[in-house]
Amino acid sequence: MEINNILLVDDDDSIRFIGELALHEVGGWNVETAVSGPDAIDKARVLNVDLILLDVMMPGMDGFATLERLRSDELTCRIPVVFVTAKVQPGEIDTYIAAGALGAVAKPFDPMCLPDQIREIARNIVVTRNLA
Q1: CB-based contacts of 30, cutoff 8 Å, min separation 6
Q2: Cα-atom radius of gyration of the chain, to the nearest Å?
Q3: What is the number of domains present in the chain?
Q4: What is the pLDDT of residues 37-49, one digit of tens each?
């Protein structure tokens, strides 16, 4: 899976700032940000997004509801999503995958390691799809 453009969705200003910096400067990707589920849906519909990093716990529309809406929209249903969350126990990750996400990245994340984490999740999906 080739990644060029990422949409980072988080209601926390500092997470968006650090995440955008890490993904752009370390990962080399183009990064757009969104502050909420509705904002993410609007941007995902018009931007050329290869991957969405989506916070699970947001006020109003949480990550699960946002993912459900993304999956129900013809324009966004195929965009891969990775949850970004403080809850990353094995059972919780299984829940995220069952909901339609590729996986999860733990918050707080190490900005220097975040791009490699994203690449690893994307690589695992390509391998799994090729084996199927």
Answers
A1: 4, 5, 6, 24
A2: 13
A3: 1
A4: 999 999 999 999 9
